[in-house]
Design goal:
single chain, alpha+beta, 60s Ribosomal Protein L30, Chain: A, 48% helix, elongated
Amino acid sequence: MNPRRHKSHVSQERWLISFADFITLLFSLFVVLYAFARADQRKQTDVTAAIDTAFRTMGIFGKAAPPAAPHAKDVAGKQAAAAMNLAIAEELLAPAQVRNDLQKMRRDLEQRLSSQVAQHTVSIEMGRDGLVISLREAGFFDTGSATPRPETLPTLRQIATSLNRAPYDVRVEGHTDNVPMHNAEFDSNWELSSARATRIARMLLDMKAIPPDHLSAAGYAEFHPVAGNDTAEGRAQNRRVDLVVMPRTHFDFAQAAPTQPAQLPPGWRRIDE
């Protein structure tokens, strides 16, 4: 007697396994999206609270209602949070505030040095790193010398008086044209540009215009020209010493900025008012 052969039974519900896997993955996806959304809300709340607290601390907003007396154990934590909030607000406000300060300094210097600007021995403009006060060789140095002419001291004192009011860093940069330098004192444009920058920096220190930790000097030889070296006029523009007034945090000031300060929303007031 031959054994009976049974046909294999094919389940009609196998699709449920794939469907269950799909539902599980879909549920996981929505859980992850929900978690991201909640995290973004927390970050937005934290940033809003930080800016609000810092602005009140800096005096931009009006005075808030006096809070309830905190517990002693919360004082240290709140002080740390206030310091962090103030740092956040300063970082947000710094570009506009610094730009306004540098524009005010520019106008002050243009007024003080109007004759030198008209004679093209001094130029003042906003550069990529900050305010650039450019001292042309023709008005300050003899050819091949790093010692400023005696008649330029009043101009340097005027610049020092203006810089003394600014809590920013100043980088003194020496520049030359591409004509090789070799005399009894200097063997290259590197040495000449560095010596000129160092001499101007030392004079600013002697005038007590800038704290030593806010001052630096650098020589760039002919490698940072502002004009072409193929003409005498271009080479004359390249022979210069630049005083770059800049914040310690870098911002790009090359973009055009409005000359008038932006209007604050109702209820706000400026710090310097």
